[in-house]
Amino acid sequence: MEKQKVKKQGQPGKKRAVFIVFAAVLLCLGLFSAFFPGGLSGLWRHCFSAAGLSDFSSAADAYPMSLHVLEVGKADALLVECQGKYALIDGGTPDQSEQVCRYLTRRGVSKIDYMINTHPDSDHVGGLSGVLKEFSVERYFMPLIPPEAEPSDFAYTATIDVLAQKEIAVERLKGGDSLSLEELSIQVLAPLTVRKGTNDNSIVLLLKFGQTRFLLMGDAEEGEESDLLASGVDLKADVLKVGHHGSKTSSTLAFLNAVRPQYAAVSVADSTHGLPNRDIIKRLNRFCGTVSRTDVNGTLLYSSDKTSVTYQTER
Predict the structure, then answer these.
(1) Strands of 64-147, DSSP E
(2) Least enclosed by CB within 10 Å: which of 141, 193, 197, 240?
(3) 42, 49 in Cβ contact below 8 A?
């Protein structure tokens, strides 16, 4: 009996060794990308599983709905999965496009049902042009932006150009609109008015799956938070994607008091930008159960079974 146990325990090690040799050969031949992200859909997870290696994102497979807050620096890229359907909310900066595409492939995504750009700042819209080139996208959404605030930089214009080439219509979302992704309800809470600039015209989304709630703030600042509070909408959420990367211009006391999430996610880079703001982190710790940062914890995964949320980090 003891010998059998030792043999069984040794199998994953042999598989891992074979996998590493196989990957090295493919890398030398320049064929690695054909077999992994960017190649056949879902092969990434299957190869890791066969080799006895863990793939962080595969933890979502056990749940019907999940939110992935990707590590893309001081930028936003969020993947929402529900019962085989997908929504990509923002795509990071242009240089993060390839990383976002890899992650989507790891998750077995072949078609994006909804692509939502919360607002056209380069750290939210920049990576979407690359994703549009690689994946089929059913519908594309963005907010109404004042003409004087519409960007003219490459990050934005490249995305608009690809949309035109693929003949994908740009649809505008505003407060009061709603979408659905199978059993997932997607309520658009803001923008409620057209404000100056781009941040306070961010699309704010409330995702409802069973009894669980996810509030995604884009780069909404104090003005848009005030609009939400004045509207009387129930802002309570299990998960809060913190507005504007933890900037001091967002996450007011009144707003966090209304949300009081179990989990708060800050998408931010380890940089000299001074983000997240120290006072805001203290405030988040006061009103939130668990505060996580992509620069510290890597990609953040929140999964729902309709009654509760399970939380995991990449590192």
Answers:
(1) 65-69, 78-82, 85-89, 111-116, 136-142
(2) 193
(3) no
Task: Please give the model's pTM, rounded to 2 decimal places.
Answer: 0.85
- Helix 97-106 to helix 43-50 angle (10° resolution) is 60
Residue 140, beta-bridge partner list: 115, 170
**What tens digit of pLDDT does each residue of 273-313 get?**
788 999 999 999 999 999 999 999 999 999 999 999 999 99
Number of domains in the chain: 1
Vertex 90: Cα angle to 43 and 278 (nearest 5)? 110
pLDDT tens by residue, 55-107: 788 999 999 999 999 999 999 999 999 999 999 999 999 999 999 999 999 99
Chain centre to alpha carbon of residue 278: 23
pLDDT of residue 315: 86
Which amino acid does the sequence have at 90? D
- 27: in domain: no
Q: Is residue 68 part of a domain?
A: yes
d(CA 276, CA 287): 16
Tokens of 274: 């001074």
Residues 6+ apart with CB under 8 A from 17: none
Is the residue at 1 inside a domain?
A: no
Q: What is the CATH number of the domain that holds 272?
A: 3.60.15.10
Residues 159, 117: contact at Cβ < 8 Å? Answer: yes
Pairing type for strands 212-216 and 111-116 reads unpaired
Q: Hey, is 24 helix, strand or coil?
A: helix
What is the span of the domain harbouring residue 239? 59-313
